Amino acid sequence: MKVNIDKTLVASIALHVLVLGWGLVTFSSKAYIAPEESLPVDIISSDQLAKMMAGQKTGKKEEPKPKVEKIAEAKPEEDAVGKVTEKKELIKTNSTPEPPPKPVEKPVEKKPEPPKPVTEAKPKEEPKPQEKKPDPAKEDPIAELQKKLDTKKPPPKPVEQKVAAVQPQQQPKPKERTFDPAQIQRDLDKRATTRHELTGSALNASASLGAATGTAVANVATWRGAFQGAVKRCFTPTYNGQDADQYEADIDIPMKIDGSLAAEPIVVAVRGPSRSIAQAVAESAKRAIVQCQVYSFMPKQQYESWKLIPMTFGLKDML
Amino acid sequence: MNRRRFMTLTGSTLAMLGGGHAFAQGQPRLRIDPTEFQPVPIAITNFVPGSPSDGDVGNGVTQVITNNLKRSGLFAPIDQAAFIERISNIDVAPQFQNWKTINAQALVTGRMTRQPDGRLKAEFRLWDVVSGQQLAGQQYFTSPEYWRRIAHIISDQIYERMTGEKGYFDSRVVFVDETGPKERRVKRLAIMDQDGANVRYLTRGSDLVLTPRFSPNSQEITYMEFGQGDPKVYLYNIETGQREIVGNFPGMTFAPRFSPDGQRVIMSLQQGGNSNLFVMDLRSRSTTRLTDTPAIDTSPSYSPDGTRICFESDRGGRSQIYVMAAGGGAAQRISFSKDDTNATYSTPVWSPRGDYIAFTRQGGGQFSIGVMKPDGSGERLLTSGFHNEGPTFSPNGRVLMFFRDPGGNGGPSLYSVDISGRNELKVPTPGFASDPAWSPLLSSTSG
Questions:
Q1: Who among A228, A274, A304 is closest to B32 (CB)?
Q2: Chain B partners of A228 at a C-beta cutoff of 8 Å?
Q3: Closest of B427, B437, B354 to residue B393, by C-alpha
Q4: How far is CA A238 from CA A295, A318, B36, in A?
Q5: A239, B163: Cβ pair inside 8 Å?
Q6: CA distance B239 to B219
Q7: For residue A242, which residues of chain B lie inside 8 Å, CB to CB?
Q8: Distance separating alpha carbons of residues B326 and B166, to the nearest angstrom
Q9: Backbone φ, ψ for residue B364 (5° rounding)
């Protein structure tokens, strides 16, 4: 018979398909860019790395103490070895029914001011719900995932229980060797969680920004250090005489998103007792900038922050 | 998500975006301060000969330039064996990628051509390899025998363009040449290019000569000579070979030095067991006493602006460095050793730039060469050893030359060192050498 086709419906469907298709393409291409966030590891000094690892990037800067969830009992294990130990214990804890809540830990955790510090540490990321619960989970997305996988959800503090299990239970491990894929997944997930479990002389459940004197914040913007290091390698000023510390050149560097120069570096200002020497310093700096390109390690997703890089070249440490 | 929370999140997002923009606009300057000095890699190609007969002089100019820049310590000439490209026409821009490949930051090309009138035409170009731009380009005409001088002038051009400082290669050094066994050492006045080439002897060695100093126009030398009777200060004209005694004083005169304007000579005059500073006007031959103390005042040296004098004096018990007005008056001691109260200071000389006074310091069984600021601050010892003495500044005040005697049966030699204490080098001389004095830049005084 006669089929009445609504033209507007067809058009609507077609448009929806187009929009969805466009969305798929767009999202997939964006996701492809993301992985380039990381920067070359060799540019970060061991000292910087150590300080960065002592805290979390999302931690609150003002927090003086490093994060501590449990008071140290025998040995303060904050290094990799300690982490491995904790991890193993966690596995067992999960496989077995559920370790009894440990008296020592509970009181300890309730006392501290976890809720507040946590909220302060990352107010932007997460709202209230997580405030009640232990902070480590909030701070580490992997840890959160792990919690969800652990359907048991012991009302008190799952993470803390793990911590408690760490030290006392080291013998039971070998007993349970049953193959359980879910357990393997949990093991993998918990590796990150255990990293946050630190012991110390005083409790402080909030995440701190590295050590009290750490420079984790600076390490967040690692493209800056990387860029400085790259240009410094090519910077060979031709002056190391008297008053060298008084010579400086301010240069703005227009950049392309691929890490190459968008235009010739611009000498904004030169300073020093002799203008000709200061000018020569500026020219050396320009040569270094041009010679060392392309700076392909620059994070594309932060391009807006380094589209124009203002730099100062000095000779303070030459003499 | 309730409305309030939505608004909060939206606001936060907008604030973050806005903040990011503001950060990009007003972000702090990144700072780079290299901690180690590294010489600039530079490629110096053989100067292209205008005709086959000009090949040797072209290569010679290249060698002189290479040696000059290398000895300055500021440049690292790249071995020609590493060159990828051969320059055959300096009027065509080089393939800069070939020079980037060998890490050259600058490139020197040139050409030497014999002119129909017999003169030599020298052309050179200095290229910035990184930017591909020409930084300098000059041509010179000269008699063929002065090809080394042309090479020094080109070196100065390169040095000045790359560093922003005046060069010092087109300059000479007058010194005391020493030959023969130690007990019967023959000392002659000699002059040479700053790199040790073109040595010429000014005296025959029959009389002992000491402390030669250049006049500001580099045409005359004043020095002390032991002839018959008391040692006297002489003036020697390099071009004519004529010499004359400066003044006619009853006692010994020594340690002469020209004033910056070349119109006066300042020196020491022995009076009994003491010596004082006098200055003589070379036109009127009138003399003026500058110091009058029962002590030994000697080794005077003018500041470059001619307003002050630094000298050594033992008026305080030990030899120390003092500064006073050029016309005399109260003198202020500026040398104070922090680590050795018994140390003595001597042979002060003011830098042509006016910012430092170089000296010889004796203490702890060693002789050191050092620099300090005119107010006595910032003392820095540049080299120490058994016997180092008699510093003299290069025309640009960046390098010091002095003589070193290792002791034993050997003799002294000339050395140079950067005023930062780096790049200590032996200056080639035919034999033993002492008492060097560096001339001003010839190209700035001859024109």
A1: A228
A2: 30-32
A3: B437
A4: 24, 11, 12
A5: yes
A6: 7
A7: 353, 355-356, 419
A8: 27
A9: 60, 30
- Rounded Cα distance between B97 and B103, Å, is 10
Distances (CA, A) of A52 to A211, A268, B28: 8, 34, 22
Structural element, H or E, at residue A253: strand A248-254
Report yes or no on whether pTM surpasses 0.90: no
pLDDT in tens, chain B (447 residues): 444 444 443 444 333 333 333 344 567 888 888 877 889 999 999 999 988 888 889 999 999 999 999 999 999 999 999 999 999 899 999 999 999 999 999 999 999 999 999 899 999 999 999 889 999 999 999 999 999 999 999 999 999 999 998 999 999 999 999 998 888 888 999 999 999 999 999 988 878 888 899 999 889 999 988 877 778 888 999 989 898 888 777 778 888 999 999 999 999 988 888 899 999 998 898 889 999 989 999 999 999 999 999 999 999 999 999 999 999 999 999 999 888 888 999 999 999 999 899 999 999 889 999 999 999 999 999 999 999 999 999 999 999 999 999 888 789 999 999 988 889 999 999 999 999 999 999 986 544
Q: Residues B222-228: contacts with CB within 8 Å, 24+ apart?
A: B222/B246, B222/B256, B222/B257, B222/B258, B222/B265, B223/B189, B223/B256, B224/B253, B224/B254, B224/B255, B224/B256
**CB pair distance less than 8 Å for B30 and A227:** yes
Structural tokens at position B430:
């035919």
Question: So what's the ipTM on this one?
Answer: 0.73
Computed on alpha carbons and rounded to an integer, the radius of gyration of chain B in Å comes to 27
